[in-house]
Amino acid sequence: MKQPLIINVSQQMSWPRRFLTWTATAALWIVWLMLWGPIWHQLHGILQQGQHLRPVLHLMENMSPVSLPHAFFALLGTASTLLLWTFLPGRIRTYHHGVEILSDYARHFQLDEARIEQARQAQVVVVHHDDHGHIIDLEVIR
Questions:
Q1: Given Cys at both, which of 1, 77, 92, 119 links 125, Cβ 3.0 to 4.6 Å?
Q2: What is the tally of structural domains in the chain?
Q3: 80 and 106 share a domain?
Q4: Distance between CA 78 and CA 90 in Å, rounded?
């Protein structure tokens, strides 16, 4: 697989906008790591005392207002809900746009192929319709 899975369009952005996105990303990562700071501080203190498993589990249970089993079931429920979400049927297209060629358009609108080609190349085209809204003529304005 030669193409990467991550879409990177940073080369298409202007330099100030690219700098802003990089700065915002770095700031959000720093804030996220700072949120984990108190937990790492508590774990470091417990591990320095030489006590390992029981205090760590006690810390994990008393760290949040939600108990550890409830947090585990919430995580499991969220993951399984997202997994089931992927199996839901998506929107089904009921039509298919076929590739039309110039002769098909000319036959459908009963126009000359050269007129349609001129209209495609022109910058300004006036389209004339009949009373029912059907195209009857193309006028190229130069």
A1: 119
A2: 2
A3: no
A4: 20
Q: State the sign of the Cα–Cα–Cα–Cα dihedral 34, 36, 42, 48.
A: negative
Residue 59 shares a structural domain with residue 109: no
DSSP, res 91: P
Amino acid at 45: G
Q: Which domain holds residue 106?
A: 102-141
The pLDDT value recorded for residue 141 is 87
Residue 98: what residue type? G
Residue 8 is assigned to a structural domain of this protein: no
Q: Write down the residue that tokens 């990303």 correspond to.
A: 25
Give first-to-last CA distance, the chain, whole Å.
49
Q: For residue range 48-100, what is the model confidence (pLDDT) as tens digits?
A: 776 666 766 666 666 666 666 777 888 899 999 988 888 877 767 666 666 67
On whether residue 9 sits in a domain, the answer given is: no
Q: Report d(CA 20, CA 17) in Å as an integer.
A: 5
Count of positions (residues) in the chain: 142
Q: Are residues 64 and 110 in the same domain?
A: no
Which residue type does 139 have?
A: E
Contact indicator for 119, 125 with CB cutoff of 8 Å: yes
